[in-house]
Design a protein that fits this description.
It is built from 4 helices and 8 strands. It is α+β, with helices and mostly antiparallel strands and 118 residues long. It has one domain.
Length: 118
C-alpha cells in the first residue's frame, strides 16, 4: 500500500525500476497499480484518507476502510537491499485486509477484464 500523496512519486520511478527488470504491468486508475519482475507481480494499493474529521480511517477502492491505527507505528524494513518504512505489524494488516487465509492465493483477487494492462 502507498499513501495517495506519494502515488505520483512512486509511478515516476518506472524508468529507474526498468533498469532492474521491474516494469509497471497494469494500472487501475486511481486505486491500484501492479509491478512485475519476471513471473512475480506486486500489487500496490493506493490508500486515501477519509475526508470526514471524525473518521480515523483510510480507505481503499470504494468503501473498504482500514483503521489508521495500522499506520501509526512504522518501522524500517529491508527490501532488495534498500530500507523502506512499513507498518510495524504488517501481518496483522494483511489479515485485516485479506482475511485469516491471506497467505493462500485466492481467485477473489484474480485479474479482471476491466484492468488496464500495459
Amino acid at each position: 500500500m502507498i499513501f495517495a500523496k506519494d502515488r505520483d512519486k512512486a509511478l515516476s520511478l518506472q524508468e529507474e525500476l526498468k533498469k532492474y527488470g521491474i516494469e509497471l504491468w497494469c494500472y487501475v486508475l486511481p486505486w491500484i497499480f501492479t509491478f512485475k519482475y519476471k513471473t512475480v507481480t506486486c500489487d500496490v494499493d493506493v490508500l486515501y484518507e477519509a475526508n470526514k474529521p471524525w473518521n480515523k480511517q483510510f480507505y481503499l477502492l470504494l468503501e473498504k476502510y482500514i483503521p489508521k491505527s495500522y499506520f501509526q507505528r512504522v518501522e524500517k524494513i529491508d527490501f532488495l537491499g534498500q530500507k523502506f518504512y512499513a507498518p510495524a505489524n504488517p501481518e496483522s494488516l494483511l489479515e485485516y485486509h485479506y482475511g485469516k487465509k491471506w497467505r493462500i492465493p485466492s481467485s477473489r483477487h484474480a485479474r479482471i477484464e476491466s484492468y488496464i494492462f500495459f
